[in-house]
Amino acid sequence: FDPRHYVGTPCYGFPKTGPHRLRFLLESVKDLRETLKKKGSTLVVRKGKPEDVVCDLITQLGSVSAVAFHEEVREI
């Protein structure tokens, strides 16, 4: 969870993620974790800037050969 998604937008100060969307995200992550657990897997969830968190995870895991990501479209 990127903390920057829970502060106001630059133009009008509205939160990028409101309470209803946040509840949906949390419930979705919880459901995904439970589904993966039933299949013998797990879900890693972290809070922080992705550029920092991903780097830390790669260091912790040590055997990462590839990382895939997408970039959010920014307002001009």
From TrEMBL:
UniProt KW Nucleotidyltransferase keyword: no
Tell me the keywords, alphabetical order: Chromophore
Using the record's annotation, list all stretches that form the Photolyase/cryptochrome alpha/beta domain. 1-76
Any one Gene Ontology molecular-function term assigned to this protein's record = damaged DNA binding
Any one of the GO BP annotations: photoreactive repair
InterPro entries registered for this protein in UniProt: Crypto/Photolyase_N_sf, Cryptochrome/DNA_photolyase_1, DNA_photolyase_N, Rossmann-like_a/b/a_fold
Its protein name is: CRYD protein
This chain's source organism reads Haliaeetus albicilla (White-tailed sea-eagle)
Q: What is the lineage of its organism?
A: Eukaryota, Metazoa, Chordata, Craniata, Vertebrata
Q: Which gene encodes it?
A: Crydash_0
